[in-house]
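agent: user wants the structure for DUF1501 domain-containing protein from Aeoliella straminimaris. delegating to structure tool.
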Amino acid sequence: MNTPYYTRREMLRRTACGFGGMALAHLVVGGASGNTAMLPRTTPVAPRAKRIIFLFMAGGPSHVDSFDYKPELIRRSGQSIDFEGVRFGTKGKMTKRKLMAPLWSFHRYGETGSAVSDLFPCIGQHVDDLCFLHGMQTEGVAHGPATLFLHTGATNLVRPSVGSWLTYGLGTENQNLPGFVTIGPSPVNGGPRNYSSAFLPAIHQGTPIGRAGQPLGDAPIAHTTRSDRSTDWQANQLDHLQQLNQLQASRGHFDQFEATIQSYELAFRMQTAVPTLFQLDRETEQTKRMYGMHEKATAGFGRQCLLARRLAEAGVRYIQVNYADNSSNPRWDQHSKMKRHATHALATDRPVAALLADLKQRGMLEDTLVWWGGEFGRTPFSQNNDGRDHNPRGFTVWLAGGGVKPGHHHGSTDEIGHLAVDGRVHMHDLHATLLHLMGIDHKQLTFRHSGRDFRLTDVHGRVVKEIL
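agent: tool returned. relaying tokens verbatim.
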């Protein structure tokens, strides 16, 4: 049987009044499986990481202008060679395209001597902590399908997001906060489907904080405070709603109603936990300056990255930080005027480097997996004279901490940076590896829906053991 709602009501009141630990412990003891859906669970294999922070660079940053140094591309810049098209109307057809050298110089950093362009001088200082995957490949050549595939493993179906699968499999460490949070998500190119729980219980859906294009301080988590009503009044309202939900659940569709019940209770508890978490002014001036919060160019993404660290510290399982906007042409999508990459790199380089440094100095990088990347890369040839087209056939992402090899380069594209030719890692493989690092076998994490078992990697995916 479920914990009686009069008991839940009392526990929620105690949580809201500052007795969260005692209340929570009482709330979950003896509860049915539905009441323990978000409790942390052990895995058959010891996890290397406890949490993931995904830094999503929407639009597809150019790997040949950032982390994939190609001297041959520089030498052959201006030459026209044949490329096989991947777009609608050009797929499979050979057309001549003109090679374009990277617009930024590359320099060697760290003991590993890893080459990083002048776009990312701050991240360059951390190359000895990074694990580069240079042979990435994915599905979908347009932003919508490719972004959905990155988040859900499917290009055009409603499937659960990576964060939803993780909380479904592992629960989360802090019962007063969501297990999956997405900061500044974009409403386009998948929109809410990118953080949806789909057919998984609703408690596993990502909680959006703000919205792309809005300052984080102006739009945290919606509806977490209600100053016009007392805690007791809200507890009475919640108690009444939960009794109605329990009545409905007794008539069938228990799982759906239990998920709704849990969501209401979590929302009630969040009223106490969230305001403190968002008080970034409690951080030292040194920390805020490190994240670039005192400078206009870096303040926005700096706040997002600092909040991500605070969420990770508070026990949130999966945190996504979006560098995105409300346009159907995302920020890194330079089909012309590639020089605009400099604006986006300036906004993100220092905050990302600060996040890496902050996690490391707090001893959190060992069990926090940081993932940086976009939905695909960009072509080595020019488009519209000074831009680059989408490239799902070969691009770079990097990981840090959480059990991956530091200062390591896995895979490669060809000599001009177009096709992944060595150490190829499909997005399904990356998903399988992320789950593995969290202690989950991607083939075993399934959910029965509409008569079949679903999983994040569908019938694909392999763990990239070479980077562990």
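agent: one observation worth passing along. The radius of gyration is 23 Å.
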